[in-house]
Structure formats: C-alpha cells, structure tokens
Amino acid sequence: MSDHPRAFADRPVVVGAGIAGLMTALCLAPEPVVLLSYGHLGAETSTAWAQGGLAASIGSDDSPELHLADTIAAGHGLVYREQARRIIEAAPAAVQTLSRLGVRFDREGESLLLGLEAAHARRRIIHAGGDSTGREIMRALILAVRRTPSITVLEGVEARQLIVEEGMIAGLLAARSTGPFVIPTSRVVLATGGIGGLFLDSTNPRASMGQGLALAARAGALLSNLEFVQFHPTALDGAARPMALISEAVRGEGAILVDETGKRFLADLPGAELAPRDAVARGIWRHLAEGHSVYMDARSKPGAAFSKRFPGISEICRQAGFDPQSQPFPVRPAVHYHMGGVAVDGEGRSSIEGLWACGEVASTGLHGANRLASNSLMEAAVCASWIADSVKGQAARQRAFPALPVVPAPPNPTPVRPIMSRWLGVLRNRHGLENAIAQLLPLASRRAPASEPALIGLMIAVSALRREESRGAHARTDFPHSDPASQRSLLSLDAAMTAAAMTAAAETAAAETAAADLPPSPFQFAESA
Q1: Is residue 364 over pLDDT 50?
Q2: What span, in angstroms and rounded, lies between the C-alpha atoms of 501 and 450?
Q3: N or C: which end of the chain has fewer CB within 10 A?
Q4: Of the residues 277, 309, 332, 430, which is catalytic?
Q5: Active site residue 251
C-alpha cells in the first residue's frame, strides 16, 4: 500500500507507539488506522523500560474496592473517584486481553504471580519476566500490530503540529527523513508518553519531552494537573543518563534504604521504605541535601534471590560495578512519571473535537496528585479500548486537503533541562518557580528548537506557582500544608503565557535571587555532554 499521506485521508491517526498507542491501534481494528512511531517500533518508549507491572485486583484477598482505596489514598484528594473505580474494575479484563495478545505474565502454577509495591495493601502487581514487564508487553503488542493488516505503521516519523479548523481537528503535520507532510484527518489520538526528557535526571527516554502536551496546547486544548511530577525515589546514582530505575518491587521484597553509616533513616516514616513514592522521595532528597549518601541494601531481602527475582536490575547494577546481593548500591530520586496531562473525559476526549489522549500524556483523574505504583500500564491498557470505541463512533469528516504549514524546528530540550531540574525538583517554592518562569518565557516565546520543550516547562511552572499548597508529588516549602479546598487544575496555553508574562514582569529584578528557604540541592544542574 502507498504511504503517500493522501492514502491515509480520513483515517484515525495514533501518535505514539508505547502500550497506549499500540493498544489503541489494536482496539480500533478492523478500522484502518495510521500509527506514528518516533523511532523504530518499540524504541524510545517508556513502556519498554517499565520494570514494574500492572496493578489488578485478582487475588483471593483483594477487591476493586481495596485497590480503589489505595489509589485514592495515594492521590491525596485529587482522584476522580468514579472514573478511578471504572478503570480499576476493568483492570482484570485488560490483563486477560493482554494475555490473549501474547503477553507472557509470570505465573505460580496456573495462577498469576502477584507482587507487592509501595502503598498497596495487597499483593496485586502482575509482572512479566520478573523486572522486564514493559519489554515483554512491547514484544507481544508489536507482534500483534505487525500481524494486523488494518494498522499502517509509519516509523521514524515525528508529529510536529495539529491542524485545527473551526475548533476541530483537520489534520496532522508530521516530519520524516524525506521531509514534512500532512495527513488529512479529523481524528487524532495522542499517546506520546511523559516529560522526563525535560529534566537532567530522569528514568524516561530522552525523547520523552512532552511533545503530546505541546501539540495539544498549541491546538487550544486544556491541560490539567501539570504541576504533579512524580520523582521515583530510587534511581541508580551514577553517571548514566537516562538513569536506571531500581523498581519499587525491590523494596516490596524487603530491601531497605540506608545512609553511609548504615542507618535506616526512613524507619520512622509511616510505611518506611514502602510509604507512597512522594514521601520516600522527599525523605531521600532531604537526607542527600544534609550531606549524606543513600544506598539500597538488598543483602538480607531479597538477598541470594535477587538475581533470579530481578535479573534486569541485577545486570544493571553489575554493569555499574555493584553486586546487589553482597553490597548496598547508591540511589537517589529522578523524574519518573507525570500525573498531569491533556484533560480528558471518560472516553479520552480532550476539549478539542477530534482529539483524544491515552496513557501518560492524558489526565484521566485516576492518579490525582501522586500515582500509585503500577497503575499506569493498567490505565493505558484499559482506556485504549474505550478511546477506540469513541473514535469509531465519530464519523470522519471529509475536508479539503490542508495546506502544508510552516514546519516548526525539531524540539531540543537542552537549554530547558537545567532550569527544570533546578527549580521544579522534589521541593519547590515561589522564588524558585518565578525564576523558572522568567528563564523559560523567552525560550517559549521564540520559534526555535527549544521553544516547544520550554513551553511545556513554562506551563508546569505556572501551574506549580498557582498551587499554593503541598499535595502529593507537589511539595512547596513556603506552603507546607494542604489546602482542603484544593481542586484539579486546568490551564490553557493563552492563560499560561499571560500569567507567565505578568510574573516575569513583576519579578525581573529578582529573577536570579536564590530561594532563601529552599534546602540546598544535593546536585549540580549543568547539562552533561
């Protein structure tokens, strides 16, 4: 079949090829669909790197109500209860669907093997290949996509701009090695992943830099809860970037966190090492800021079983010069997941007609202010089918072939990373957020490679400045308490730019002032070569 853009006219287009994109395309079958992959299918996706599993209440001692209660507790008051209930109740069926598609989940006899992760009251984490769940999911889904004739995969293609006419999606501007092109379509699903590439220290692929958020914002869509950025407490502390994740499941199997003296410094934290991620990340960050080093000690538990239970992590540690079975190894927080995203309804529809979002790029209301471990892969697998049904239910609108717009430069987040890392880390305050806004606004206002990454960084900073409280993954030293009246945040591009301009104008003279009450960062924020 021809891959000329005109051959794809009026087909739904799915942007992104992790679990959210692949599942959406598969659920759309047999309707013809175009799937855009930034790299080779399976490359540069956070799904492929996922060590954790899928959370589903299938154990004999578990129930959707218990899973929902844990999700709500982790989300610190911002979880949409009914939407979360709907997603959680659908999780066991989504696991069955993945199994039918060929995912080889770990089993104990005839039953699925269930693991424990932080803030879960029951063992409900379903893994594949121990700590290689994401890799196994991608293997199976890619094979299924390759075998589905209704899915046209365009690899090495980057979405650059959504074309909007009369408030509705009319096309997608994309680019590949042979040049830019337009796909005329009235239905686009964003499945582009997260924002970790906007920071120096992240467990995400460097290409995950908020492209879907930028596409949606430029098109006029509302974004929600952008200020909530989850820092995984335990990334391997070394020179490699992106940073290697040390799964929460390691702590679920009994590993503890100690400092250079051997002190278990989080012992008094409710839940200790298995407290919610935001609390553990803050505890580690503060201990590092006080001049300590932090290590994960797995010598006792899981001990000799480490390499069998976590073969991938074991190999990562050994490559870095550590034997996790016989010595503690250094860890620290790194950006891992974005709870914010494109504001969507229960069917994944955004505020722009013809635009849907699935997976990490979407804000469904499930995660609230802090994602519960292993709820993300589950959310993507569940919501993909609902989004596919919604897309099928909207008839294609035949329109004139859109003209080729001015093609934006390929995004380059290099100038943005030190700003985001310095001022939008685990702990924040007003002065730091104002500094971030003052530095990001000029970058976001230009038509330059850094503009799109800076735009999303700016919107995150504006949202964080507006939320004058500490809640979940958003911790402010100048507003250490939660506000009972807190609500989900919503932000448009125009509102963000207006707020940023006002903030920058008021604070220009103080833009370089250090935040007096912000604990000193334990890290240097200079872009590495």
Answers
A1: yes
A2: 18
A3: C
A4: 277
A5: no
